[in-house]
Amino acid sequence: MHYLYDVQLWDRIETGVEFLIFVALMIAAIIKLGHNDFLQALFYIVLAVIISPWSGFERVTKRYILVSVFFLGLFVGYFS
User: Fold this and answer.
1) Are 57 and 65 in contact (CB under 8 A)?
2) Residue 8, SS3?
3) What is the model's pLDDT at position 56?
4) What is the chain's percent helix, strand, coil content, to nearest 5?
5) What is the pLDDT of residues 8-42, one digit of tens each?
6) In the 8-state DSSP scheme, what is residue 25?
7) Could you tell me which residues come within 8 angstroms of residue 48 by beta carbon, excluding any fewer than 6 positions away?
8) Burial of 61 (0-12, 13-18, 19+ CB in 10 A)
9) Which one, 5, 36, 63, 65, has the greatest CB density within 10 A?
10) Is residue 25 within 8 Å of residue 45, measured between CB atoms?
11) For residue 48, which of 71, 80, 18 has the smallest C-alpha distance?
12) Confidence of residue 80 (pLDDT cuts 50, 70, 90)
């Protein structure tokens, strides 16, 4: 159970999850571009750029931005 306290392991897991979410959002943007929904595709691309491990945002700032943009997307109706 000592691996639960390994900070480097959790950082690598978080980076992997960020990359997987980045890929999923880019795929969603490509699908929405195929359906001629430019604004929703742009929304997904902006989310992908924010979540990207190479974005340069601090992780705490990235979390707050993503949660607020997610609620904005719910309000607009993108996730229905």
Assistant:
1) yes
2) helix
3) 84
4) 80, 0, 20
5) 998 899 889 989 999 999 999 999 898 888 888 99
6) H
7) 21, 22, 25, 26, 29
8) exposed
9) 65
10) yes
11) 18
12) low
